[in-house]
Design goal:
Layout (H helix, E strand, L loop, with lengths): L1 E6 L2 H16 L6 E6 L10 H6 L7 E2 L7 H19 L3 E5 L3 H12 L4 E4 L11 H11 L3 E4 L2 H9 L6 E3 L3 H16 L2 H4 L8 E3 L4 H4 L2 H15 L4 E4 L2 H9 L10 E3 L4 H10 L2 E4 L2 H9 L4 E3 L7 H5 L3 E3 L4 H13 L15 H20 L1
Parallel strand pairs: 1-2, 1-4, 2-3, 4-5, 5-6, 6-7, 8-9, 8-11, 9-10, 11-12, 12-13
Amino acid sequence: MKIVTVIGARPQFIKAAAVSRVIRGDYAASVEEVLVHTGQHYDDNMSKVFFDQLDIPHPKYNLEISGGQHGAMTGRMLEAVEDVLLQEKPDWLLIYGDTNSTLAGALAAAKLHIPVAHVEAGLRSFNMRMPEEINRILADRVSSLLFCPTDAAVNNLKAEGIRDGVFNVGDVMYDAALFYCDRARQQSSILQALNLPVGGFALTTCHRAENTDNPHRLSEILSALVEIAEQLPVVLPLHPRTRKLIGEYHLSHLLASLIVTDPLPYLDMVALEQAASVILTDSGGVQKEAFFYGVPCVTMREETEWVETVDSGWNQLAGAATSSIVSAVAAIMQGRREPVDLSAYGCGRAAHDILAHLAKQSTWRLRKAA
C-alpha cells in the first residue's frame, strides 16, 4: 500500500510524526509513505527543525509554496499536489487538520479519484468566517475515511448526514504529547535560556487571521499581555506573519515588556507548555496541549473546536478584548477545575488505529477489484 501524506504547517508535522512512526515500525514491510511538504510554513523554526526533532523522514517533495491570499496559495498547492499524485499513483492520500494544504490535497486527490483519509475530521467551530472552518468542512466532504479525535467530532458529522467511513480513533496529538513530554523536559534548555521558573510565567501564541488581520483585535490582545506582564512574565514566541503585521500596525511598542522569541522548536515549546502557570492562545493545537499537560488555558477567540477542554473548566473563551482576556486569566488561575480527564481523546494509540483501518480498507478494495 502506498500513501501520499500532504503536510505544510507546524500542527500537521506533529500529527504526521505519530502516524509516520507507526508506519516505519509496525507497517514497514507493507506500507510506503511519500511525504509532501507544501511549504506553507517555511521558516526553519516552524518547519525543518520539526522534522529533525520529531524524527520525521524528510519529505520526498517540498513544493515551497507559501504566502499570498488564500485562494492563490490553495490554487498553487492544488496544481503542484496533482502533479505529485499523477507521478506517485498512491492508494490513499492522507491529510491532517484544516489548513490550505489540507484542502489542496483533498481536492487534488478527489478529482483524480484517489481516496482521501482525513485525520482530525469532524471538528467544527461553527464560524464560517474562519478559513480553517471552510477547509475542514470541504475536506470532510470529499474524504472516504474520516478519522475523528473525539465523540463530539463524530456527532458533528452525523448532524451533517455523514456516517459512512467515520471512526473515532482518538487524537494523534495526544499520541505525540505522551511520546514527547518526557523528552522535552530532558532535552530542552529553554527555561534556563529565558531564566524562567517552573510555574512562574504565562505562555502566549497568536497567529489566526481573525486576530492578526484586524488591527484593533491585535492591539487589544497585545495590551492584555502588557497588563498581565505587570504581574507575571509573559513569553511570546512570535509567528513571522504576526510579527510583520505588528510592525505594519505600529504596535511594536507593546512588545517591550514581553519576552518575545522567534518561533520555537517543538521540544522547547512543549517544555514551556508543561512549565507555564497559564497559557493564552488562539491555536487549536496549543489549547489541547495545555489540557494534556494540565495547564489552564485562555483562548483568545469567541469559539473553539475543542469543546471538551472548555466543559472541563481547563479552558476559557475570552475573545480579543483586553479586559476580557485579563479577567479570564485571573478567573481561570483562581478557579476550581475538575481533574483532567483525557479519556475523550483516546488512549494514545490513535496512529495505530488509523493504520489498522487503512490496511483493512485497502485489503477490502483489493478483494473487490479481484
